[in-house]
Amino acid sequence: MAKTLKYAEVISGGERNYQKVGKVSSESVKKHTKKDWKTWVQLLEKAGATRWTYQEIVSFLKTKYRLTPWWQQGVAMGFEIATGRRKAGQDARGKYMVTATKSLPLGGKAAWKLLLSTAGMELWLRPLSPLKVKPKTGFETVDGFFGEIRTVAVNRRVRMSWQDPLWEKPTIVELLLVAKAAKKSILVFNHTGIHDADTREALRLRWREAVDGLAELAD
Known about the structure:
Layout: E1 20-21, E2 24-25, H1 26-33, H2 37-47, H3 54-65, H4 69-82, E3 96-104, H5 108-116, H6 118-124, E4 137-140, E5 146-153, E6 157-162, E7 171-181, E8 184-194, H7 197-218
Antiparallel strand pairs: 1-2, 3-8, 4-5, 5-6, 6-7, 7-8
Helix pairs in contact: 2-4, 3-4, 6-7
């Protein structure tokens, strides 16, 4: 597996490498914000952002550069990763998060039906026993997790608590379904509040396997 270069590493001539910060390439950040990672890091360092909180950096990017909310967060997070204040995959509270996405060759309603089918749920929820996806429904999974479905927006979203018996506090999983065309949709699993990097890696593999399996089932 190719190694992801980080800001603190150097390339020829002793210059820092800004090709990629976290999972976002310099090309991508420039496309959406008109500035690459090297420029953003230098601008924020010059402004004194190394002494600011995360929210202060977000506020600065909003008022000074008028970035969209998505890129206010993205550039602030990238700056903290680039300067060593945050590890890739950590949120502002120091918890870890995982996102797994996949395009499905199905429209929104058809994709939702697949996700809630017995075969679909065996791939992503893996329940010990059949259940209906509705609020206040508890569940246990064959791989040792348990939780409760909190909210459901039909054809669009499921939000649930997710816990291992050894964890002190539950995490949160959100299933998001975005219809893109008559026969295409984007499936997203966001898992937040993860307590450590090792657990994050295990869950990343779990959700990656889930979306890949669902895509195969949809074909």
